Amino acid sequence: MVFNVAIVGPGLVGGALIEQLAAHAQSAGFARLPITVVGLINSKKMALANTAYTAADLSQWQTALLGDSAQTADLTRFADTLAGLKGATAIVDCTSSDAIAALYPSWLTRGLHIVTPNKKGFSGDMSLFREIGRLSSSPLGPAVYHEATVGAGLPVLSTLNDLVRTGDRIIKIEGIFSGTLSYLFNNFSAPGATQSFSACVAEAKANGYTEPDPRDDLNGMDVARKVTILGRVAGLDIGTDTLPVENIVPEPLRAVSTADEFMQRLPEFDQHFSKLNTDALQAGSVLRYVGFVDGVGGQSSVKLARYPLDHPFASLKGSDNIIAFTTERFPNPLIIQGAGAGAAVTAFGIFSDLIKIAERYGSGLADPKF
Amino acid sequence: MVFNVAIVGPGLVGGALIEQLAAHAQSAGFARLPITVVGLINSKKMALANTAYTAADLSQWQTALLGDSAQTADLTRFADTLAGLKGATAIVDCTSSDAIAALYPSWLTRGLHIVTPNKKGFSGDMSLFREIGRLSSSPLGPAVYHEATVGAGLPVLSTLNDLVRTGDRIIKIEGIFSGTLSYLFNNFSAPGATQSFSACVAEAKANGYTEPDPRDDLNGMDVARKVTILGRVAGLDIGTDTLPVENIVPEPLRAVSTADEFMQRLPEFDQHFSKLNTDALQAGSVLRYVGFVDGVGGQSSVKLARYPLDHPFASLKGSDNIIAFTTERFPNPLIIQGAGAGAAVTAFGIFSDLIKIAERYGSGLADPKF
Fold first, then answer.
1. Mean pLDDT, residues A204-220
2. B310 touching A (Cβ < 8 Å)
3. Is B303 a catalytic residue?
4. What torsion do the CA atoms of B288, B291, B295, B300 make, to the nearest 10 degrees?
5. Using an 8 Å Cβ cutoff, are A58 and A18 in contact?
6. How confident is the model at residue A359 (pLDDT cuts 50, 70, 90)?
7. Domain harbouring B274, CATH code
8. Quick one: A222 and A353 in the same domain?
9. Which keywords accompany this UniProt record (chains A, B) (predicted)?
């Protein structure tokens, strides 16, 4: 049997996925899946399968995209070709594009499975989310998996899905969903920490932990998208347009035109953040930037909140994510913690989803553990 | 399409599963699975499907087992009947019996799927483990899922399976796998705690957190079985017969004949435990009883160990389990924490496994989240 995979937007994450698939193709024994990469496309070029590319030489794929044999990118022809292949075929969307997410319904209609870390199809228009759901809810029809949209490879959405589908009642989901904001507040708000807020942001930026403009992290929109996805998977009708989101970019700096100017002026607000922090520490707490899904009271939000020192959120390290599910069956929350960003762990989330599709569609999967 | 479920040993866990399946059968919309309970068997009696029992009146099942229509238990005839049914059929083994686990190969040979919280088939003879694996490794053949053998409903084995199958390298797995020993040491070994060890054991016993004879918890064998399962899923050739297990039952009390006498004499050893605890606390640490899978160095073990106060194991509460996976992709470990024992969460783990089988075998499953 055959399980085909095609990658849209093969950058860092797509590259890590190709590496993992290549290592897998060279592995031995029961565990090996018959996964074949059959296409890559970026905004300019595309490469489609020919006999030269097999699962055994995946490294050729990325160079193929740059070589003379690459064709001009044409998403319609790309999808047409994939839909015509034998076996099950999954498109992996590694972009963060609204325009690509808008194509999912057309792909599903042609029987193509979708796996993606792209949040846009699940946190944007409710109508698109519902359309994607409708088209992937037939038992033998195409599937959509998007584990890596929240917490990268951490088993967050699979766990939430299991809870929901077995009839547990989701009371709340609370978490630190941004690696950037985790790193920032783990360093800034800890007993004994002395660095100013602006210095913490500058350090995070220098280490590559922030967006090019750190305001894209500090405005909370990335967390709002993740809260929206979790809420919708839990059955709530929520969206980023109505969710209360605490934007911690100081008001006067929101209209500043460049990231450089923003960074230059941020120290003007160190006293503001320092006071918030001191107040929290004096109360035996630390500051954490969290997303909160209210499963029962309609009070979902994204905000800077205080947690006591013995709370699991307070002892978080580095840029880890942490997610706590409080449910009827888990009144003491079920907690998942670990790296929630990075190419290797995001690719891991995608690969795990691909395996689930391979299992569901009987593509010759064997159990590796025996 | 039809997905049949039969339960062997329907006690507390089986009862909770039946409750969850009954609630599910009455739920509406996309999420509802076509699961039908078709049989129950205990050590004395059995009830097999007839037209009176449908998914809509699962509560009848348990009384049916006690009523006049119940037949004398006959596992051979039970399995024969199940193997003759249309659609996919899964046996849920809710016993902790070696003898039942030894039947798995015969069930698999007949195409019956298996879901179980029973550790015996996966932590006993390596030959049985391998035979179960061989018979469930064909892509379209029967499947075996046993999430609830470690950490009940916590997504421990599914996560480990995902890591292994996508080619991550398991460096170590470390965890508190016993709810009893978690509760005991969370209370006994904490800054400021004053209760003696024997008083902590007595309190745990009075609250129903221990086995009838607490030595069955303190000897570490339950944890050893879980470490064996995790190690084997990670590809190691380990077993409870060779694993170093620290039995914390004081030597002179191991041969004592009754649980009562053991409890009566345990205070004689309070000073021993108190010294261990004081030494740990003076070093800024607490005592925790842990299982340890060494993925690279062959030093897997079960032991009483010290953890510094800011370690996630030190701040554990109640009787929660916690499991930390350190891998090549997660050098900062991926951590899962929450209730790892109890009927409702164990049934949740079983139900999640049943859904995975239903998905793989195309039994009319729809995605609930849209």
1. 94
2. yes
3. no
4. 100
5. yes
6. confident
7. 3.30.360.10
8. no
9. Oxidoreductase
